Amino acid sequence: MKYYTGNNTGDVPGNLPDPYFWWEAGAMFGTLVDYWFLTGDTTYNDVVMQAMLHQVGDDKDFMPANQTRTEGNDDQGFWAMAAMSAAENKFPDPPEDQPQWLALAQAVFNEYAMRWDEATCGGGLRWQIFTFNNGFNYKNSISNGCFFNIAARLARFTGNQTYADWAQKIFDWEMSVDLITPDMKVYDGASVNDGANCAGHDLIQWSYNAGIFLHGSAVMYNITSGTDQQTWKTRVDGLLQETTGLFFNNSIMIEQACETVNLCDIDQQSFKGYLTRWMAGTTQMVPDTFDTIMPLLQNDAQAAAAACSGSPASGFNGRPGTACGFKWTGNSFDGLVGVGQQMNALSAMMYTLVNKQGSAAPVTAATGGTSKGNANAGMEAEYGPPKLAEITTGDRVAAGFLTTAIVFSVIGGGIFVVK
């Protein structure tokens, strides 16, 4: 948490400092919710609560005024998934006069449903919400993956079939436009610019795209039966096979599109942490994946520990000797430091605490969940309806592409100590 200053007097709760984008802070707080659940350490709970509630916005939908102009669908989704994790893990509920975790996730789901764009490609979310942001004419897997993942988890938590129907619809759409292939490759996105109907696919495969669909598919397997369940099991198996084949080198996780050529940007340097989270979550929803996934995560934990031996470096805010590098395959510190690297290593460590017997699966409303929902949340939000796609302005502001979570310097203190 040495990188996070939002809880300091005069700073903005929930924000990470430059050069980190807003969505990455949402991913960070999702990681910290899981950290509390897996370890029982309440040290950061008040900070997490303060940050997440400060960023909900006037419409209680994670569209705060200080982010709205540049916010994309994927950015909003990472905050909503953090709220969903809080509901599933029974993270302390906010005071009654504050927005509740489940209702926040439902608000984002409802706004996504209103933004579903059948005018191009027969459906799908655009990357950006507003026309004036770069990426509005692009439909990408991470935005639709956020929608899919949230829908599947809401279906499981609430038992409402409408959410499950949407999850099915989103996955089917991804396949219909070849963003997910029959052999379960997940491509980045496709253009709808100048009348293009999801043409010009970007065929790059990122680990977090594979992970978000893997986990959502596992949740759908968990709540279905019969032929529907078998369909989702086939998808889980295919996504897992593609993931382990593409994003692991000698059983150690890599970001294959950029890591081997040293071109990963700040966002991409955090993706491994999300894949780790979603692979661990998959074992809870589809138990027979445990024996495939957990040995890989255990290997990653050892490799990450070896990479977390760095001395103080430019941009590192933690204790000497606890700087974590980006690459895990070299069995040493590579000198690349930041929020993403620390979060990746924390994730590699803590998600090995998930096991077949000791870690309870995420709760539902029927199995002890206490978070209160609102099925109509977000329906009246100023920024929810598709009409916002028609807003015009001369400004061109690059939206923050998705990513990561703040380093949490428990990796030098609470989770493990590297000398």
From TrEMBL:
Recorded catalytic activity of this chain's protein: Random hydrolysis of (1->6)-alpha-D-mannosidic linkages in unbranched (1->6)-mannans
Transmembrane segments: 397-418
Localization per Swiss-Prot or TrEMBL: Endomembrane system
Any GO molecular function: mannan endo-1,6-alpha-mannosidase activity
Record-listed E.C. numbers: 3.2.1.101
GO biological process, any: carbohydrate catabolic process
SUPFAM superfamilies: Six-hairpin glycosidases
A Gene Ontology term for the protein's cellular component: endomembrane system
A Pfam family assignment: Glyco_hydro_76
Record keywords: Glycoprotein, Glycosidase, Hydrolase, Membrane, Signal, Transmembrane, Transmembrane helix
Family recorded in the similarity comment: Belongs to the glycosyl hydrolase 76 family.
Record-given protein name: Mannan endo-1,6-alpha-mannosidase
Source species of the chain: Phaeoacremonium minimum (strain UCR-PA7)
